[in-house]
Amino acid sequence: MVQMMRQFLYKVLPEDSYKAATGKLHVSLTRFTDGESVVVSEYTSKEELIEALYCSCFVPVYCGLIPPTYRGVRYIDGGFTGMQPCSFWTDSITISTFSGQQDICPRDCPAIFHDFRMFNCSFQFSLENIARMTHALFPPDLLMTRAAITAPADVPAKRWVVSSIRGAKSRRASTAPAW
Q1: Could you tell me which of 118, 115, 58, 123 has the C-alpha nearest to residue 82?
Q2: Which single residue of 15, 33, 34, 138 has CA 20 to 30 Å from 108?
Q3: Could you tell me if 102 and 129 are in contact, meaning their C-beta atoms sit under 8 angstroms apart?
Q4: What is the pTM of this model?
């Protein structure tokens, strides 16, 4: 699956994509040798950008035994040391595929308030999140995935993102530290 993602990125990203990503796309990695969290945002080529993304998706054993390299150093998924590597007072938007307290994330049943923190990220304990984790580790086949993504009954993504960003800004303003 991760190898398919890598091939897809080589196919669709323009040769100068690293220029647009440099300084804007921060990729969280975990250095394999010592478990240290590393965030990269400077890329010198399309190849280097894709290698950083490839390392950020690599889950040991599940994806293979030998981690990939970025700039000659072996890295694994940054989620092992921090799924949200930025601080709460920085000017950034937190995004997660799991429901919790991130700025942009799925909103599950509001009656369930059991959140827990793991890998510097908030997770809501819910059946929907369990299903999301299952699909992350054991994805459905590509035809089912494509049908779900292109289904006409889906809520328009633009409206969802805009409302999430507005909510994030108001939450950030109310929780910003007073210096």
Answers
A1: 118
A2: 138
A3: no
A4: 0.60
